[in-house]
Amino acid sequence: MSGTRIPQAEITGAYGAVLKRMSKKMMGEVPDALGVLWHNRPVLKASMGLGHKASKWKECDKDLKSYAHMAVASLIGCSFCLDLGYFQAHNEGLDETKAREVPRWRESDAFTPLERDVFEYAEAMSQTPPTVTDELSARLLEQLGAPAMIELTAFVAMSNQMARTNVALGIKAQGFSASCGLAPLPQPRGVASQA
Fold first, then answer.
1. Which of 22, 109, 117, 127 is the most exposed, fewest CB within 10 Å of its CB?
2. Long-range CB contacts (within 8 A, 24+) of 12-17
3. Which residues are CB-neighbours of 79 under 8 A, at least 6 positions away?
4. Residue 161: phi, psi to the nearest 5?
5. Tens place of pLDDT for every residue, the chain, 195 residues?
6. What angle do CA 130, 171, 126 make, to 5 degrees?
7. How many CB atoms lie within 10 A of CB 137?
């Protein structure tokens, strides 16, 4: 299947002009997701609002949250999230070597024990039903503290919402990462992969 499962709407009006301008400034182009979600602006605004608010959370290390988001995207099979995640990693100074290894974190020796626990936690939260263990939670709580662990948990849940929405709507990678020299990228390992 090519394209999204719901055709993109024409983004119009003053609000649409602002969103298109911001998207082009941040990513170089307007993502397909914006056109798809434009069909229901309250959902679009709520999604963007949550993402904006989450970007201001400061209790948990931003690199750990980025890795967790990419781990969720890889597990679920959201190529758009991985593409955007690599693009943001490049632009925000995240270790690009590590970012490339996220889909195969278990086999890679690039990650610290804490990062591995974050990956395991993100994947365990993303299973249906969730498979988070008391032992893993205790390790993370000891390393991160309660405020950061709560933030990480909320961030992983939000990442699940985004990734599952994109996969269900057929929103795929757009080559954002290629624009900063990060291609070719590893494919998501999720069952619903959109390669």
1. 109
2. 15/41
3. 73, 172, 173, 187, 188, 193, 194, 195
4. -60, -45
5. 458 999 999 999 999 999 999 999 988 899 999 999 999 999 999 999 999 999 999 999 999 999 999 999 999 999 999 998 888 888 788 888 898 899 999 999 999 999 999 999 999 999 999 999 999 999 999 999 999 999 999 999 999 999 999 999 999 999 888 776 666 555 666 544 343
6. 5
7. 15
Task: Classify residue 128 by its DSSP letter.
Answer: S
Which helix (H) or strand (E) segment holds residue 116: the answer is: helix 113-126
Residue 142, both tokens: 């000891």
d(CA 79, CA 101): 15
Q: Find out whether 100 and 86 touch, Cβ atoms under 8 Å.
A: yes
pTM beyond 0.85, yes or no: yes
